[in-house]
Amino acid sequence: MKNILLIILIAIAATGCEKFLDKRDPKATTFQEFFNTEEDLRRVVYSSYTDVFTTVTDRRLLFYMQDGRTDDAYSRISGDHHQLIANGSMNSNARLSEYYWTIHMKHIGRLNTYIANVDIPYVDDEAVRENYRNILEGLRAWHYFIATSRWGNVPFLLEPADLETAKQPAKPKEEILNLLFPMAEEIANKLPPDEYTTNAYMFNKYSLKALIMRYALYNGKYEMAARLAKEIMDSKKYELFASYANLFNYKGDKINKEFIMKMDMPSHNNTATNSFRDLGPQYRTGPGQSYSVPTKALVDAYWTLQGRPIDKCPLYKKEQYELNPKLNRDPRFSASIFGHGDKFSGEIINIYDENSPLYYKNLRASSTGYWYKKFVDEADAFKTSGGNMHFPLLRYAEVLLTYAEAKIMLGDVDDLAKSCINQIRKRAGLDMSVADVTLTPKTKQEWIDLIRNERRTEFAAEGLRYDDIIRWKTAEVVLNKPALGHTRKIDDSLVSLKIEDREFLTHQYLWPFHESSLRVEPGLKQNPGY
Fold first, then answer.
1. Do residues 276 and 248 lie in contact, with contact meaning Cβ atoms separated by under 8 Å?
2. CA 197, CA 353: separation in Å to the nearest integer?
3. Phi then psi for 371, rounded to 5 degrees?
4. Please, which residues bridge with residue 496 across strands?
């Protein structure tokens, strides 16, 4: 394998991006020859999103597949990588460690080249050029936020690499973040405050600040996270959509003001979306493949209608809740998950019926007996061409819960923090005569337990769980248990479907560098434990 940073240098200098090969001038051989118009500038911004962040074809990158890395879900195809991360098979020789490292470093290299040459293309309005420059710099920051979350110390380049700079040692994560956070905020402040009329998926001032807010929380910079969340709230640009369930289907995906960062149809050139295929059930002639499905651990995580854990509710026994997940449950459960005993396309699901396509042992059925309802609209059930779903990459609910968590961790649970949680719970449909968090005093640990579970159920299937269990350092607990599925009673005993054993070792909080990368990149040092 060639040096990844040299690949970046060579690929950028020669072509910039594969999509440029579709240019009008097939004789163009250098970057400068085909980077000369405003449309060229727009194209590199567009491709910088769709190649990694808004792709609809690569399940390794799709946000709704990434809960398969956690205790919340099971990803049935090992080549999608999520299964291997969840069951502890990730090591320095695994293809996945090379794949993700390469894709982030490759795109950082491209972005460095685009930014360095952003003054070359002709534009009618210099404000357009400046806006594209800021979006490209925001995307580069996004890559670095992810890279430092996964590997810790990484090379940090803000200019196109040459043979010498490509060999520089990795910079400590904290040094990178100390540079990156103020840099990203400065970029955000130069962006327009409103969503664009077209290309709404591109960064504006508040969507980039929301992303910075997310990674401030992830990295324990709670004062920054709370400040940014408050600024976004005060902007009045976003609001909770009235129906939690309809946010994730065609009734609400395109009309809400909750999606702050979005994956809409223009973000991937209006190609068909495949969330039904990826998450939905195999049913008759339908396309569902059940590639990622919820586990019992997630099902049991939904608290009661009154906002209590199922093992601390005086109304019913825990066993009753396990056998009947819809019993007295947080309405977000029914809005997010369906399975055995529910209706699909007018028929009752029986995962234990060997003659049913939904039989749990069938390849394209769910081995856990559950499916996500989020992003699985029955309107797509029998389409062969896919759907046109809009997806949230970051929504206003995360702003509210980020403010609340940051204030909890700071030991300053103010009225606004409590209101943020209550807004989320009220919209979800909980019984606020009991679930109102202002009704009873709580210890700091009780607040922590509450906010962590609130995030888990609010954002199920939205790709946030992995970063949460990594930053909370709970992965070593929740991923050292078998992945289980539907529970039923057999001979007076509760029996749950068993999918796989899992193991998580403490060194896996950071990902390994692939052995081939270490051989050719002298600046890299393998993370401990690998």
1. no
2. 50
3. -135, 155
4. 487
Q: What percent of the chain clears pLDDT 90, i.e. is strictly above it?
A: 89
Query: Would you say residue 414 has pLDDT above 80?
Result: yes
The pLDDT tens digits of the residues spanning 382-405 come to 898 899 999 999 999 999 999 999
pTM: 0.94
Q: What does the H/E/C string look like for 107-150?
A: HHHHHHHHHHCCCCCECCCHHHHHHHHHHHHHHHHHHHHHHHHH
Q: What is the pLDDT of residues 299-336, one digit of tens each?
A: 999 999 999 999 999 999 999 999 999 999 999 999 99
Strand partners, 487: 496
34 by Cβ neighbours in 10 Å (0-12 / 13-18 / 19+) ranks as buried
Helix (H, G, I), strand (E, B) or coil at 371: strand
How far apart (Å, rounded) are the C-alpha atoms in residues 482 and 488? 17
Q: Which two tokens stand for residue 276?
A: 């039904």
Q: Residue 462: exposed, middle, or buried by beta-carbon count in 10 A (0-12, 13-18, 19+)? A: buried
Q: Are 54 and 267 in contact (CB under 8 A)?
A: yes
Give the residues across from 234 on adjacent strands. Answer: none
- Cα dihedral angle (176, 178, 183, 186), rounded to 10 degrees? 160
Tally of CA atoms within 13 A in the half-sphere of 133 that contains its CB: 16
**Rounded distance, CA 6 to CA 13, Å?**
10
Tokens of 505: 């070792």
Cα(425)–Cα(437) distance, rounded to whole angstroms? 9
CB 293 within 8 A of CB 371: yes
Running DSSP on this structure, what letter comes out for residue 159? Answer: S
Closest to 226 measured CA to CA, from 417, 422, 467: 417
Q: Are strands 391-395 and 259-263 parallel, antiparallel or unpaired?
A: antiparallel
